[in-house]
Amino acid sequence: MNILSGFCATLLMLCQPFISQYDFKYNSNKEFVHGIIQCTQSFNAVIPPQHRVIIVVSVAQAVLESDWGNSRFAKLGNNFYGIIETDPTEPHITALNNPNVLLKTYGRKCESVADYIGLLNANKHFIDYQELRMKQFVTRVIDIDKLVDTLRVYAKDPFYVYKVKDTIKYLYVTYPTFFKKPTNA
């Protein structure tokens, strides 16, 4: 699994200069959702199917982490997923309530989406996610709720998984033309 994750992360990084030229503007929640969808679809298109993220999950996490793209990190750094920067020499924004917490900044909005996909595919904290996604890919039985359950390590909030699931339900209801509930093939 580590070799595949490494390959996927490498492929994503190699393709990033071409795809990250795409950017989007948003002045409403609907435009924000559409932009995150387009970025996620673009990056999903260049990685193997078994390593693709579920678009509605990507959007739900972006909505939660960035308050629909309205958070300070989203506005100043195009960081829609609350991704931490561990290298203080790299571009970052410090958290207002804790100057020791650094959040990455991105030149373009889609770079945040690419980093999020790479994080889920390669970071050791998401092994449960990676293994379950692979199992679901092989069996062709997609269970978004179970996949979201593996994201409990994404945030310190003990209710994070429930918030992601509630946001997914909201997205299905509010944007039915953008999202269709998966059917198992």
Could you walk me through the main structural features you see in this protein, from its secondary elements to its overall organization?
The chain has 185 residues and is mostly helical. The protein is 54% helix and 3% strand. The chain has 8 helices and 2 strands; from the N terminus they run H-H-H-H-E-E-H-H-H-H. The chain has helices spanning 2-19, 29-44, 55-66, 72-77, 109-122, 127-139, 144-149, 160-174; strands at residues 92-94, 102-104. It has a two-stranded antiparallel ribbon. Strand 1 and strand 2 form a beta hairpin. The model has no long low-confidence stretch (mean pLDDT 89).
Main beta sheet: 2 strands, antiparallel
Mean pLDDT: 89
Helix and strand sequence: HHHHEEHHHH
Number of helices: 8
Distance between the termini: 24 Å
Low-confidence stretches: none
Percent of residues in β-strands? under 5%
Cα shape = globular
Radius of gyration: 16 Å
Number of strands: 2
In which order are the strands of the major sheet placed?
Answer: 1-2
Chart the SSEs and their pairings.
Elements lengths: L1 H18 L9 H16 L10 H12 L5 H6 L14 E3 L7 E3 L4 H14 L4 H13 L4 H6 L10 H15 L11
Antiparallel strand pairs: 1-2
List keywords for this structure.
185 residues, two-stranded antiparallel sheet, 2 strands, globular
What's this model, at a glance?
With 185 residues, the protein is mainly alpha-helical.
